[in-house]
From TrEMBL:
<dbReference type="GO" id="GO:0004045">
    <property type="term" value="F:peptidyl-tRNA hydrolase activity"/>
</dbReference>
<feature type="binding site">
    <location>
        <position position="112"/>
    </location>
    <ligand>
        <name>tRNA</name>
    </ligand>
</feature>
<protein>
    <recommendedName>
        <fullName>Peptidyl-tRNA hydrolase</fullName>
        <ecNumber>3.1.1.29</ecNumber>
    </recommendedName>
</protein>
<feature type="site" description="Stabilizes the basic form of H active site to accept a proton">
    <location>
        <position position="91"/>
    </location>
</feature>
<dbReference type="GO" id="GO:0000049">
    <property type="term" value="F:tRNA binding"/>
</dbReference>
<feature type="site" description="Discriminates between blocked and unblocked aminoacyl-tRNA">
    <location>
        <position position="6"/>
    </location>
</feature>
<comment type="subunit">
    <text>Monomer.</text>
</comment>
<dbReference type="InterPro" id="IPR001328">
    <property type="entry name" value="Pept_tRNA_hydro"/>
</dbReference>
<keyword id="KW-0963">Cytoplasm</keyword>
<feature type="binding site">
    <location>
        <position position="11"/>
    </location>
    <ligand>
        <name>tRNA</name>
    </ligand>
</feature>
<comment type="function">
    <text>Catalyzes the release of premature peptidyl moieties from peptidyl-tRNA molecules trapped in stalled 50S ribosomal subunits, and thus maintains levels of free tRNAs and 50S ribosomes.</text>
</comment>
<keyword id="KW-0694">RNA-binding</keyword>
<comment type="similarity">
    <text>Belongs to the PTH family.</text>
</comment>
<dbReference type="Pfam" id="PF01195">
    <property type="entry name" value="Pept_tRNA_hydro"/>
</dbReference>
<keyword id="KW-0378">Hydrolase</keyword>
<dbReference type="InterPro" id="IPR018171">
    <property type="entry name" value="Pept_tRNA_hydro_CS"/>
</dbReference>
<dbReference type="GO" id="GO:0006515">
    <property type="term" value="P:protein quality control for misfolded or incompletely synthesized proteins"/>
</dbReference>
Length: 188
C-alpha cells in the first residue's frame, strides 16, 4: 500500500497529500513505524505489518508526487510483488470532497503521481483508494488547487475522511475489490 504525497512539512496539509495522511493512519492501526529504507527502498519510508489479517508493506515515496513511480517500482522489486498487488492511496479531483471510491486500473485523470507509477510499473492495472478532494472553485488551476491546504471547513471533516479512507483500504484487503466496492460506495 502506497500513500501518495509530496515530501516536507510545507506540503503536509495539502490536498495532494491526503493519500499520505491515509497511509499514516493505516500505519498507526497496524503499529508500523515507517522508516527510510536502503538500496532499492531508499527513496521511500516503509514498514511491514498486518492489516485486515493480511501481511502488508506500507510505504510513502520520499520523492515529489510526479516522481512516485521510481520508489514504487523499487519497493515492488524488493518485496517481489506484482503491480497487480499494489494499492495506491491518492487524492482525486473528480470525486466530491469527503467521498471515497475504490477501483482497479483505468486512467490517471491528469494525476502525475499515478502517471509516474503506471509508467514505472508497466501497467495501470493496480488497485486504487481514491480520496475525494473535489474540483477547484471557479477557474482556479487544478495544479494550484491540489497544492493548497484544505480549507477551514474541510479541515473540520478531514480527520473523518482519513479514517473513512483507511477503513475502505482495510475493507479492500479483507473482502476484495467487488465486495469492498459494494460496502464502501454509496447506494444510488
Amino acid at each position: 500500500m502506497v500513500g501518495l504525497g509530496n515530501p516536507g512539512p510545507g506540503y503536509a496539509g495539502n490536498r495532494h497529500n491526503v493519500g499520505a495522511m491515509v497511509l499514516e493512519e493505516l500505519a498507526r492501526r497496524a503499529g508500523v513505524r515507517l522508516a527510510a529504507g536502503k538500496g532499492a527502498r531508499a527513496r521511500a519510508l516503509s514498514g511491514e505489518g498486518r492489516l485486515a489479517g493480511r501481511r502488508v508493506v506500507l510505504a510513502q515515496p520520499l520523492t515529489y508526487m510526479n516522481e512516485s513511480g521510481g520508489p514504487v517500482r523499487g519497493l515492488l522489486d524488493y518485496h517481489k510483488l506484482a503491480a497487480e498487488q499494489l494499492v495506491v492511496l491518492h487524492d482525486e479531483l473528480d470525486i466530491p470532497f469527503s467521498a471515497v471510491r475504490l477501483k482497479r486500473g483505468g486512467g490517471e485523470g491528469g494525476h502525475n503521481g499515478l502517471r509516474s507509477i503506471s509508467r514505472s510499473a508497466g501497467t495501470k492495472d493496480y488497485l486504487r483508494v481514491r480520496v475525494g478532494i473535489g474540483r477547484p472553485p471557479g477557474r482556479q488551476d487544478p495544479a494550484d488547487f491540489v497544492l493548497k491546504d484544505f480549507s477551514g471547513t474541510e479541515r473540520k471533516e478531514l480527520e473523518l475522511l482519513v479514517v473513512e479512507a483507511a477503513d475502505a483500504a482495510e475493507t479492500l484487503l479483507e473482502l476484495g475489490l467487488e465486495a469492498a466496492q459494494n460496502q464502501v460506495h454509496p447506494r444510488t
